[in-house]
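Letters spell out the chain; backbone shape is given numerically. Both lines appear below:
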Amino acid sequence: MKIRVLLALAFVIGLTAAVVSANQTDPLPASGGDIQITPIMHSSVQLEYAGKVIQIDPVAAYDNVELPLLGKFDALKAADLILITDIHPENLDTAEITKLRKPGAPVVMPMAVANEAGAKITAPTVVLANGESKTVADVGIEAVPMYNVQHGPKPGEVYHPKGRGNGYIVTLGGKRLYFMGDTECTPEAKAVKDIDVAFVPMNMPQTMTPGETAECIKAFQPKIVYPYHYEGQKRDEAFTKALLRGTTVDFRTSLR
């Protein structure tokens, strides 16, 4: 029993250390001032621009580990706008949304998330379907379909069906930031244009292998890329970076 407790504690400490290293902020020069980009972990990202805070998939617990346990998950700030990509617990944390929302701050989500959350997320909510665009809280948002083309738990079934979740392109200060969500390299993803920063999933079996991630990056050619939806495997990062040699992509690691 003592060994099991020590192993569990070591896992929590290791995961918390990963969260701390992820809580580093990169400035992106934009019209009107820098966009401050803070990768948190897995799918959670914080943006700050012109006095506004935007949270993407803010989650306080992952794989049944409460991230605030050691008091290190303190990067998240009160949000003027929240974007939710999908219904899974690593994307949708209604308690964290309630905690972070400033009074009246809108929450953008696909219909599946609205149905899953029910009354746990109070108004105002903004439901966007795949392919829809809208200005919310003075921020331009495009909902890009996110789904599996082939990967699934068994033949004839995929992990993320088309139409359920949204990736998002957020426009701030003339810069376009693309949060792909849980997706493979779909035709819609390949077709996006003029992306300054992309958060690209890199985990199997749910989304893409490092090789598939690299090919997807080459397809739509964002200027800066962060891998996400994974836990920072250095071997995968190195392999993906090697596959991108010869391109102009600035491949950054979320955990560094």
Remarks:
- Residues 112 and 203 are 23 Å apart (CA to CA).
